[in-house]
């Protein structure tokens, strides 16, 4: 559509990562853009308190999704961003963690590119980095892991479609996003593809927040332990011998009994 002299200049869409939960982990750039935006389109897993940085008159649109229960279909969401920008608004598309790590940032940008909408991407602290730091589990360590892999543990039709032989490797740390529902399957596959049942593994729920819970075990016992502890989403699964360091390196103590 060619702009006419009466249409406003097209607004920019900023795809912004809000970090893993602790508001202090927001980047300065994210905070500044959120404070300036005309419209904020946000998800379920954004840092608590982040919307309070927005202008009082900014339009705040929730498009969150919980697991596979998508509130707004992706295509509709992509079109919403295009519509807001064409109306001349400065749009912040706010996402949990980093927009380019299991954040569908790429999909949303494709529509913007095709529609000729200017955009920028603002990185955020991804859940793996946040949970590693706040649980005391370094993702790499000279004695333990020379590489780290981020994988999606999303369970579909009872299976997880991953390259298990590539993930079940010594000296590798694997971080599974969206994996609590498929935890038993993840642990089973990692053992079936060569890791010992005693290989260390951890779950970090609500990492970096007051609700953070960390549970360390091994591949054989983790699913049972997590179930007994009632740990659910959002949580990350970290598999690797780096998990052994947690006992020594844990420093973050969320206030006990806060439960909120
Ligand atoms: N783009 C996000 C990830 C979105 S996928 C990022 O870069 O972090 C959503 C998954 O991220 C959740 O299912 C969970 O596995 C993980 N996650 C997000 N926030 C988390 C948190 N505070 N603690 C633990 N896991 C978290």
Automatic annotation (TrEMBL):
Residues 12-222 form the Tetrapyrrole methylase domain. Keywords: Cobalamin biosynthesis, Methyltransferase, Porphyrin biosynthesis, S-adenosyl-L-methionine, Transferase. It comes from the Bacteria. GO terms for biological process: cobalamin biosynthetic process; methylation; siroheme biosynthetic process. InterPro entries: 4pyrrol_Mease (IPR000878), 4pyrrol_Methylase_sf (IPR035996), 4pyrrole_Mease_sub1 (IPR014777), 4pyrrole_Mease_sub2 (IPR014776), CobA/CysG_C (IPR006366), Siro_Cobalamin_biosynth (IPR050161), Uropor_MeTrfase_CS (IPR003043). Its EC number is 2.1.1.107. Pfam families: TP_methylase. One of its GO terms (molecular function) is uroporphyrin-III C-methyltransferase activity. Pathway: Cofactor biosynthesis; adenosylcobalamin biosynthesis; precorrin-2 from uroporphyrinogen III: step 1/1; Porphyrin-containing compound metabolism; siroheme biosynthesis; precorrin-2 from uroporphyrinogen III: step 1/1. Belongs to the precorrin methyltransferase family. This is uroporphyrinogen-III C-methyltransferase. It comes from Candidatus Accumulibacter appositus.
């Amino acid at each position: 559509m060619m702009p006419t002299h009466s249409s406003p200049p097209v607004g920019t869409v900023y795809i912004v990562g809000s970090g893993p939960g602790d508001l202090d982990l927001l980047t300065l750039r994210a905070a500044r853009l959120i404070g300036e935006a005309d419209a904020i389109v946000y998800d379920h897993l954004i840092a608590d308190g982040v919307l309070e940085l927005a202008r009082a008159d900014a339009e705040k649109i929730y498009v969150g999704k919980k697991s596979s229960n998508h509130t707004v279909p992706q295509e509709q969401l992509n079109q919403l961003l295009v519509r807001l920008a064409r109306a001349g608004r400065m749009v912040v598309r706010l996402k949990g963690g980093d927009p380019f790590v299991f954040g569908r940032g790429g999909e949303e940008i494709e529509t913007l590119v095709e529609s000729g909408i200017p955009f920028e991407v603002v990185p955020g602290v991804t859940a793996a980095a946040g949970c590693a730091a706040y649980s005391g589990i370094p993702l790499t360590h000279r004695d333990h892991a020379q590489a780290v892999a981020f994988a999606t543990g999303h369970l579909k039709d009872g299976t997880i479609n991953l390259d298990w032989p590539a993930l079940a490797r010594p000296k590798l740390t694997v971080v599974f996003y969206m994996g609590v529902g498929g935890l038993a399957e993840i642990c089973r596959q990692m053992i079936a593809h060569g890791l010992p049942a005693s290989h260390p593994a951890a779950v970090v729920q609500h990492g970096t927040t007051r609700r953070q819970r960390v549970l360390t075990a091994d591949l054989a016992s983790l699913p049972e332990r997590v179930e007994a502890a009632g740990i659910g989403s959002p949580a990350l699964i970290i598999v690797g011998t780096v998990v052994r360091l947690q006992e020594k390196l844990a420093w973050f103590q969320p206030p006990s009994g806060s439960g909120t």
